[in-house]
Amino acid sequence: MRIVPCLLAAALLAAPRADACEMMRFKRVQASAHVHVFEAAEGTTAVVNGNIVAIIGKDAILVVDTGQFPSIARRVVDEIRALSPAPVRYVVNTHWHGDHLLANSVFKSAWPGARFVAHPHTIERAAFFYTDYAKRAGERLPGVVADMKKRREAAKLDDEKLWIDRTLDCVAHALKEIPEVAYLAPDTPMSDALEVDLGGVTAVVKHIGTGNTPGDLIVWVEADKLVATGDMIVAPVPYAIGSDLEPWTRTLAELRGLGARVIVPGHGPVMRDDGYIRDVDALIASTRAQLAAMFAQGLSREDAERRLDTAAFRAKHVDTPMRRQAFEQFYVKAAVAQAWPKKQ
After folding, report:
1. Which stretch of DSSP H or E encloses residue 106?
2. The pTM is what?
3. Which of helix, strand or coil describes residue 18?
4. E strand or H helix that includes residue 161
5. How far apart are CA 266 and CA 248, in angstroms?
6. What digits encode the pLDDT tens for the residues 47-70?
7. Which of 6, 25, 333, 340 is 20 to 30 A from 299, comparing alpha carbons?
8. H/E element holding 204?
9. Are 86 and 58 in contact (CB under 8 A)?
10. Residue 143: alpha-carbon gap to chain centroid
């Protein structure tokens, strides 16, 4: 089974039973005076949903990302309306992965006047992957399920068996929502910065460099010293699927330079300091150096996966079976795959 370039979730999967898949749950967290986060469940299965963020001014609201599940998006729309009578005027898609933008159409239906902002790279890649999404995903999903079941039968590690079982709990109900997803492309390209006055609070949409993808956007709220990062930051384990590690550390330095006191990641809980960002930065820098050395030595991709030393990060953050599997799938294997683009 291939987990992405959008976490299998992002391109293929959708709404499972609420009692069978934790991804159908979220909680609302007030991150700051003007910002509410609809925090998705921990993204450690192969089916994930991104955090959705509402920045609320007196006159207008800016939403950061929309998730991929129409049913969740509708619930978030209802909660936003309960928080404020102001309309959503802007929706920012931080990057092209489907778990952050496949529910755009739900927000457009709720607020027809909203503008959907994204980097040109995001617009181009999302169009490639999500045009005719419902038909293509419906056709591919049975094969994904069959492959995962075969992998489950061959699995020897309890961690892997649990990870597959939990993922299949979600996949089994995917077809219920796939037909509802009608991909709505962003209509406002933005590759530098866009300042938006929401009434009493200003949000600045910025492209500060390549992170998880070349088109990553962040949203900075100066009044609250808050930044919404998209998948440039993901907790409890980073996603590096299709990511270029070389510029990522430079972009993280730019992110830290904002001096944010509140950090809203693309997945994971609201953070009140940059400690986790520093840990991710150190992990990426170490990974880059190790992989370059191993590639130069002629090691195989499989040997590199086994030898990559991530013990320091694991000791602090990778402390459950689901996190261990997610870290292997979404970071270790993904990072090595970028360094070994062709299997050797």
Report:
1. helix 104-110
2. 0.92
3. coil
4. helix 158-171
5. 15
6. 889 999 999 999 999 999 999 999
7. 6
8. strand 202-206
9. yes
10. 24
**Can you spell out the DSSP letters for 51-95?**
-EEEEE-SS-EEEE---S-HHHHHHHHHHHHHH-SS-EEEEE--S
pLDDT in tens, 127-156: 999 999 988 888 888 888 899 899 999 999
| C-alpha distance from residue 322 to each of 28, 62, 218 (Å) | 23, 33, 28
Q: Which residues pair with 230 in a beta bridge?
A: 265
* Residue 263 near residue 227 (C-beta atoms within 8 A): yes
Q: Which pair of tokens denotes residue 237?
A: 């384990």
With tokens 């929309």, the residue in question is: 66
How far from chain centre, in Å, is Cα 21?
A: 18
Q: How many CA atoms lie within 13 A of 162 on its CB side?
A: 11
CATH superfamily, region 22-130+181-274: Ribonuclease Z/Hydroxyacylglutathione hydrolase-like (3.60.15.10)
Measured in whole angstroms, the distance separating CA 57 from the mean position of its chain's CA atoms is 25
Taking only Cα atoms into account, the Rg of the chain, rounded to an integer number of angstroms, comes to 19
Cβ atoms of 325 and 159 within 8 Å: the answer is yes
Q: Which pLDDT value is given to residue 12?
A: 38
What are the tens digits of pLDDT across the range 235-290? 999 999 999 999 999 999 999 999 999 999 999 999 999 999 999 999 999 999 99
List the structure tokens of 18.
Answer: 């609420």
Structure tokens at 210: 């390549």
> And the tokens for 230?
């998209």
What are the domain boundaries of the chain?
22-130+181-274
pLDDT at 281 (0 to 100): 97
- Which residues does residue 28 pair with via DSSP β-bridges, in sequence order? 38
| Dihedral in degrees, nearest 10, Cα atoms 205, 210, 212, 214 | 90
Could you identify the residue written with the tokens 């960002």?
277
* CB neighbour class for 34 (10 Å; exposed up to 12, middle 13-18, buried from 19): buried
